[in-house]
């Protein structure tokens, strides 16, 4: 497999970090609002590229399991790198970003609460919880990171493997 997941995971992680920094310097709210969409596209691209590279080493054929493993490995490496970067950015480089995140979350909650028809007391309670929470402390990240490997990581890898698997019609003898 020539360690494609590591190679492409590192490249994807570096690409996401560079684009995150670009958004950060242009407008911090862009980074918070659109960063995850950009990361999604980059991660999917490099997961697909990894499976394609592994498949090309196998004369253009790859089983579902052999497609799943490198795709998921690429996701794990990319997500770990970008999560560590986010932790450093939010806690040491620019802790004021947490306030930007909370403002955007509060605005989104205000809109959603109208649709959900929440009462004022429920709304206030939720806003207090939002204000008191810190999704970027070490405990929250240590808890969330492994779960992100399962969802959405496993789901992305399963879909990519399903689409990209290609087995020979006749077994090679």
Per DSSP E runs of 2 or more residues, the count of β-strands stands at 0
Poorly predicted runs of 5 or more residues: none
Shape: elongated
Helical segment tally? 6
Distance between the termini: 22 Å
Structural class: mainly alpha
Average residue pLDDT: 88
Largest sheet: none
The ordered H/E elements are HHHHHH
What share of residues is helical?
Answer: over 70%
Rg for CA atoms: 20 Å
Can you describe this structure?
- The protein has 173 residues and is an all-alpha fold.
- The chain has a domain at 4-94 and 136-164.
- The chain contains six helices and no strands.
- It has helices spanning 4-26, 28-57, 64-93, 97-116, 120-132, 138-164.
- The longest helix has 30 residues, at 28-57.
How are the SSEs placed, and which strands pair?
Blueprint: H1 4-26, H2 28-57, H3 64-93, H4 97-116, H5 120-132, H6 138-164
Helix pairs in contact: 1-2, 1-3, 2-3, 2-4, 2-6, 3-6, 4-5
Describe what is shown at a glance:
Helices cover about 85% and strands about 0% of the residues. With about 170 residues, the protein is mostly helical.
Search tags:
mainly alpha; 173 residues; elongated; 83% helix
